[in-house]
TrEMBL record, chain A:
GO terms for molecular function: 2 iron, 2 sulfur cluster binding; FAD binding; iron ion binding; xanthine dehydrogenase activity. InterPro entries: 2Fe-2S-bd, 2Fe-2S-bd_dom_sf, 2Fe-2S_ferredoxin-like_sf, 2Fe-2S_ferredoxin-type, 2Fe2S_fd_BS, Ald_Oxase/xanthine_DH-like, Beta-grasp_dom_sf, CO_DH_flav_C. Residues 1-84 form the 2Fe-2S ferredoxin-type domain. It comes from Nitrincola tibetensis. The keyword Transferase does not apply. Keywords: FAD, Flavoprotein, Iron, Metal-binding, Oxidoreductase. Residues 196-369 form the FAD-binding PCMH-type domain. This is Xanthine dehydrogenase small subunit. Pfam families: CO_deh_flav_C, FAD_binding_5, Fer2, Fer2_2. The keyword Oxidoreductase applies.
TrEMBL record, chain B:
This is Xanthine dehydrogenase molybdopterin binding subunit. It comes from the Bacteria. InterPro entries: Ald_Oxase/Xan_DH_a/b (IPR000674), Ald_Oxase/Xan_DH_a/b_sf (IPR036856), Ald_Oxase/xanthine_DH-like (IPR016208), AldOxase/xan_DH_MoCoBD1 (IPR008274), AldOxase/xan_DH_MoCoBD2 (IPR046867), AldOxase/xan_DH_Mopterin-bd_sf (IPR037165), Xanthine_DH_Mopterin-bd_su (IPR014309). Keywords: 2Fe-2S, Iron, Iron-sulfur, Metal-binding, Molybdenum, Oxidoreductase. NCBIfam families: xanthine_xdhB. PANTHER family: ALDEHYDE OXIDASE 1-RELATED, XANTHINE DEHYDROGENASE. It comes from Nitrincola tibetensis. The keyword Metal-binding applies. Its cofactor is FAD; Mo-molybdopterin cytosine dinucleotide; [2Fe-2S] cluster; Mo-molybdopterin.
Length: 488, 781
């Protein structure tokens, strides 16, 4: 396996397939600038930047190295905090800004913040030379980096002060890009056959869907890994050994983003970040949810397909996709099938995915101009928190102002993400007013018997779900947002 | 040495003495990733990794313990159980009660039972999970109030009183109010978890690298568990990745366990807690249950107060005695209580032993009286700020319930200045208008003050030592008893030494805190780091300055008083000077000793606990904050829109660092009162056991408008350069956020009802408070 670490091409042989990038850097290479704060992708202390070839240059994305499998870095450039300063020890502008603004106290989270700022710096350089960063962009980008000392103000000021000057990485862009493309090409020419691989342990990255299915069939005990942001917790938190990993991130078919006349089609391995722009265009409330889904690091790794196939009751995209009547395409050795997402979840973390089958793509029908569509996420913290309730509503009104079609998708309310079928029914034919939703609000108690857990009580979940209908009505009637996060 | 180094005598020195905003001494290393924490130190050859086997239940008895599968797991080299310990087995820091390992009785979930060591960290942690443990479970006590009712206490109750007959004063008061509230605990969530590395040395000794606020206590306890003299143990502590009190006593167990395993296998051993273990196995800020009964006159001024605080100590005393005392010392906050009785109980429950956390009980105590202020204002239909101002310590009303006089002038000046700068009254009016036109979203505003007592309430801890070496190239090494956890202590101490010697901080290196350099040190706690160690370092610097001065004056045949140390030089006239390093070299050749120790103990303080009277605090640090919030009455969600702070740091040693402490303390306090919710299930298992389920403030939680200013009046007491301690006091400025949330909720009753709002005020608790208030408002109609 070959990748570029800072400026150096590295070949890694005989690594355990479930080795994480952070573990490899800290224990094998003794690069100890990146810290382990939680080993679960929740604190950002281990944040690193991964550069990938783009059509003209490189894209720089942050990852939580504690939950990134080493194998997924083949043919990519990893930039660590050690690689930011010049060989003479001169600090990178983002490092200098952190010093100048007194933005480190204990310093343990600092390398992670520096790397997040670095990726922001690089993105900014590509976008514009004039505009100043906004507080929203900074929040969005740094929401996954926890600091327990500073209260963030000096870090925000450091980010606001960033210039748009090219840095030392700019002039190397093309040479690194060439080197990465060469590495990727050579990786493709050395594809092992599934039957020829030692059966004990592997990290395999197929490049075609047929190859992926072949491997899955040959190794029913292998785990499929996409972004790995959930699976890697089995490694770092459950301490399970996962000897066989099949990575979806290089399969071209799974990476497609396509807009047709009536749909947005997304390959299952498309990350949140990769489809963010399309979401912004076609489903603005979903794009707004994305900003609160995990952190930037998670959104750079996590995939839509993973969020669905994982079938967690608290995944944030399934409730929304339920409300949007999304369709899933499943592919297995037996062939392919298409089914509505509402039929996909069969129980707690259970789906109807066939044996050796995968979720190939998601088709989301585009909104009708007459659709009123809202997505609300309720959690203790605004950034990087798991929903107590995730609520998606899509209604259509007829000419008389009565609800002719209603979809309510909810997360955190049951063992699976689910539609509120009774409530939907109760909305039909009603006006979208405070009176018109009353029956639907009562019907929510028929649809759901949520649990009390560490995030919220059952009572709160039910009450909030009903109240969010009220919020939607107010927003519909007044045309203004009632989400407090829009005010600060 | 025979040959002295050549000097560049012309270099000008960069001003970096006191009052300068110089960056943290490690800032460049922090951002470059080259600052080393314990886990970053290159491991010695042959190092083994340890992992702790812990109890899965909160109360009961071990009926079967089979560690054979652990011992047979891949890579395992040894196991440590209670029987392997040569010395003491109870490592309670003040009072007994903390068995280092248990083999029978279980007092809390996560209690250490055994330690396994293996060749890799992962092997050790995987092996630890293979232990077969069976228990006879008993129902755990998790309710602090019930524990007190049942007499289950970790320490005896204590009471302080001012005035004669409190009950009579209460019953005579025209306005009477009472209330109860639960104040939640708080996980430290230092980004660097607990970690220690023990390296066996000759003479049976041990070198310990640890992330601890209290190296001397680690030294003592390691020596005691190993049963060796203290002089065989050296503790080295360069920096912590955050402490906040969580590494005051609770870093020691992991150092002791690492040392015990290292001693057993005669190999270096590292023990680093995984984040979940850290959260499950170490103590938190004490949750409190507070009760009050108060009486006021018609203007809302206190006539009497009867206050009871119950601190949930967890299973053992740890520091609970002093923490509940400090809660009692701060139950008045900034207000004169007239006749007051303050009782404090220390409940024993089946959780991990709760411990120090920034504020040390003070914040929990203050919550009562700040709650009472809001409640009085609602009863009288006054603005909450008006009631607070009426009750401030003032002329004739300036004695605390523990009989210490308060210098109240700064409180009044701070509040008046802030009222003006934050445009409190204009915004108050604007918010009333805004709320009147906004049926769903409501705004709230509050100004709350802080008065926080500075000094350890355990008198003997108020001492410190320092050691300074001058080398013959003019560079200076400083060591002192304080530990660096991010608060900028080393930067401030370097500035103090630079100021004394007239040199630049660049010439000064502060080295790792080590028990073999400065012995018998106090923990870096109680905001005292700079007050104590800064003074000790200053004294050492002054001794060296005196020696250099005496020598130079003698060679120049002038008076010592003529000499001036500035800009890296020593001056005897306006134009004649010599480079500092040159004087050091000359002094060396003249056989002047170039190393000195300094020592300091805080004057004036005393406290008679039997009488609950005295002057426990050398002085008070003060401040105030105004916060404005926006609340969604449909979901209980809220945002902090703006905070304005004016905080008293005396004469600032480093305004950048002081502002960093204020902002950081405020946001941490806001987390404690809002999103940081500790949840134990009925079996006593901590459910909020990772940063995925326990939510500290993230970047969006910092308010979009955040104005922080220093109230920079010199401390009238002779502290180091008349500065004031700043570590803990700003934490409590966050009470303004909680009070503003109550204000927003109260607006739903047109400010007639004061809502109950326990903390942390999560969106769910806010919605519950809204529902309860609406119900009460309806009842009242």
């Amino acid at each position: 396996m070959q990748f570029i670490l800072n400026q150096e091409e590295l070949t890694v042989e005989n690594f355990a397939p479930d080795t994480t990038l952070l573990e490899y850097l800290r224990t094998q290479l003794m690069h100890r600038g990146s810290k382990e704060g939680c080993a679960s992708g929740d604190c950002g202390a281990c944040t690193l930047v991964v550069a990938d070839p783009s059509p003209n240059g490189l894209t720089y994305r942050t990852v939580n190295s504690c939950i990134t499998y080493l194998g997924s870095l083949e043919g990519r450039q990893v930039i660590t905090v050690e690689g930011l300063s010049s060989s003479t020890g001169e600090l990178h502008p983002v490092q200098q800004a952190m010093v100048d603004h007194h933005a480190s106290q204990c310093g343990f989270c600092t390398p992670g913040f520096v790397m997040s700022l670095f990726s922001l710096y690089k993105q900014r350089e590509q976008l514009t030379q004039q505009e100043r960063l906004t507080r929203e962009e900074i929040n969005e980008h740094l929401g996954g980096n926890l600091c327990r000392c500073t209260g963030y103000r000096p870090i925000i000021d450091a980010a606001l002060s960033l210039s748009t000057q090219p840095d030392a990485f700019t002039e190397q862009t093309q040479s690194i890009r060439e080197a990465l493309l060469t590495l990727q090409a050579s990786a493709q020419t050395n594809v092992p056959q599934p039957s020829l691989t030692p059966s004990s342990a592997f990290f395999h990255s197929p490049t075609q869907l047929s190859e992926l299915i072949e491997w899955l069939e040959a190794h029913p005990d292998a785990r499929l890994v996409a972004g790995g942001t959930d699976l890697a917790l089995d490694t770092t938190q459950q301490l399970k050994d996962i000897p066989k990993l099949i990575y979806t991130g290089k399969v071209a078919e799974l990476k497609r983003i396509e807009v047709t006349d009536d749909s947005l089609i997304l390959g299952a391995a498309v990350t949140y970040q990769e489809c963010h722009a399309q979401m912004k265009t076609h489903f603005p409330p979903l794009a707004a949810l994305f900003v609160r889904l995990g952190s930037q690091q998670i959104r750079n790794q996590g995939t839509l397909g993973g969020n669905i196939a994982n079938a967690s009751p608290i995944g944030d995209t399934p409730p929304v996709l339920l409300a949007l009547d999304a369709e899933l395409r499943l592919v297995s050795p037996e062939g392919q099938q298409t089914l509505p997402i509402k039929d996909f979840f069969t129980g707690y973390r259970q789906t109807c995915l066939p044996k050796a089958g995968i979720l190939e793509s998601i088709r989301i029908p585009l909104l009708d101009p007459a659709d009123f569509f809202r997505v609300y996420k309720i959690s203790k913290r605004l950034d990087d928190d798991i929903s107590a309730v995730c609520f998606a509503l899509r209604i259509r009104l007829d000419a008389k102002g009565c609800i002719s079609d209603a979809r309510l998708g909810l997360g955190g309310m049951a063992a699976t993400p689910a539609r509120a079928l009774h409530a939907e029914q109760a909305l039909l034919g009603q006006a979208f007013t405070l009176e018109g939703i009353q029956a639907a609000q009562h019907a929510l108690t028929q649809d759901f018997s949520p649990l009390t857990d560490v995030r919220a009580s059952a009572q709160y979940r039910l009450e909030v779900a009903a109240n969010l209908l009220t919020r939607a009505v107010h927003e519909y009637l007044t045309g203004t947002s009632l989400e407090v996060s829009h005010y600060a | 040495m025979r040959n002295l180094t050549a000097l560049d005598t012309a270099t000008a020195s960069i001003p970096s003495g006191i009052g300068q905003k110089i960056p943290h001494e490690s800032a460049e290393r922090h951002v470059a990733g080259s600052a080393l924490y314990v886990d970053d130190i290159r491991e010695p050859q042959g190092l083994m990794y340890a992992a702790v086997i812990r109890s899965a239940i909160a109360k009961g008895k071990i009926t079967r313990l089979d560690l054979t599968p652990v011992l047979h797991a891949p890579g395992v080299v040894t196991l440590l159980t209670l029987d392997d310990i040569p010395g003491i087995t109870d490592i309670g820091p003040v009072f007994p009660g903390d068995p280092i390992l248990t083999s029978d009785m279980i007092a809390y979930a996560g209690q250490p039972i055994a330690v396994v060591a293996a060749r890799t960290e992962r092997q050790a942690r995987q092996a630890a999970r293979l232990a077969v443990i069976e228990y006879a479970k008993e129902p755990p006590q998790l309710d602090a109030e019930a524990a007190v009712a049942a007499g289950e206490l970790v320490r005896p109750s204590h009471q302080m009183q001012i005035g004669e007959d409190i009950d009579l004063a209460l019953s005579n008061a025209p306005i009477r109010l009472e209330g109860k509230m639960n104040v939640g605990g708080q996980e430290h969530l230092y980004l660097e978890g607990q970690v220690s590395m023990a390296v066996p040395c000759e003479e049976g000794g041990m070198l310990i690298y640890t992330s601890s606020q209290h190296p001397s206590e680690v030294q003592k306890l390691v020596a005691e568990v190993l049963h060796i003299p203290f002089n065989r143990v050296t503790v080295d502590m360069r920096r912590m990745g955050g402490g906040f009190g969580g590494k005051e006593t609770q870093a020691a167990p992991w150092a002791c366990l690492a040392a015990l395993v290292a001693k057993k296998i005669q190999k270096p051993v590292k023990l680093r807690l995984p984040r979940v273990d850290d959260m499950v196995m170490t103590g938190k800020r004490h949750p409190f249950v507070n009760h009050y009964r108060i009486g006021t006159d018609e203007q809302g001024r206190f006539l009497a107060a009867d206050i009871t605080v119950i601190g949930n100590g967890g299973h053992s005393p740890d520091l609970t005695d002093a923490i509940v005392d400090r809660a009692m010392f701060h139950a008045d906050n900034a207000y004169f209580l007239s006749n007051a009785r303050i009782q404090g109980h220390r409940a024993r429950t089946n959780t991990v032993s709760h411990t120090a956390f920034r504020g040390f009980g003070g914040p929990q105590g203050m919550m009562i009286i700040e709650r009472a202020m809001d409640d009085i204002a609602r009863r009288l239909g006054c603005d909450t700020l008006e009631i607070r101002k009426r009750n401030l310590y003032q002329a004739e009303r300036d004695v605390t319930p523990y009989h210490q006089d308060v210098d109240y002038a700064p409180l009044h000046q701070i509040i008046e200045t802030l009222e003006e700068s934050s445009q409190y009254w204009l915004r108050r009016a604007a918010i009333r208008d805004w709320n009147a036109n906004s049926p769903i979203l409501k705004k709230g505003l509050a100004l709350t003050p802080v008065k926080f007592g500075i000094s350890f309430t355990v008198q003997h801890l108020n001492q410190a030592g320092a050691l300074i070496h001058l080398y013959t190239d003019g560079s200076v090494q400083v060591n002192h008893g304080g530990t660096e956890m991010g608060q900028g202590l080393h930067t401030k101490v370097a500035q103090i030494v630079a100021q004394c010697l007239g040199i630049s901080c660049e010439n000064i290196l502060i080295t790792a805190t080590r028990t073999d350099k400065v012995p018998n040190t106090s923990p870096t706690a109680a905001s005292s780091g700079t007050d104590l160690n800064g003074k000790a370092a200053e004294q050492a610097a002054l001794i060296l300055k005196q020696r250099l001065s005496d020598y130079l004056a003698q060679t120049l045949a002038i008076n010592v008083e003529q000499l001036r140390f500035a800009d890296g030089r020593i001056w005897w006239t306006e134009t004649d000077s010599k480079c500092f390093a040159e004087v050091v070299q000359d002094a060396y050749l003249a056989r002047v000793p170039l190393s000195a120790t300094g020592y300091y103990k805080t004057p004036k303080i005393w406290y008679d606990r039997t009488q609950a009277k005295g002057r426990p605090f050398f002085y008070f640090a003060m401040g105030a904050a105004v916060s404005e919030v926006l609340v969604d009455t449909l979901t209980g969600e809220y945002r902090l829109l703006q905070t304005d702070i004016l905080h008293d740091v005396g004469q600032s040693l480093n305004p950048a660092i002081d502002i960093g402490q204020i902002e950081g303390g405020f946001i941490q306090g806001m987390g404690w009162l809002t999103t940081e919710e500790l949840v134990w299930n009925p079996d006593g298992i901590l459910l909020s056991n990772s940063p995925a389920t326990y939510k500290i403030p993230a970047i969006s939680d910092a308010p979009p408008i955040f104005n922080v200013a220093l109230y920079e009046q010199p401390n009238p007491e002779a502290t180091i350069y008349h500065s004031k301690a700043v570590g803990e006091p700003p934490f409590m400025l966050a009470i303004s956020v909680w009070s503003a949330l109550r204000d927003a909720i109260s607006s739903l009753s047109d400010y007639r009802i004061s809502p109950d709002l326990d903390t942390p005020a999560t969106p769910e608790r806010v919605l519950t408070a809204i529902n309860a208030l609406r119900f009460a408002a309806k009842e009242a109609e």
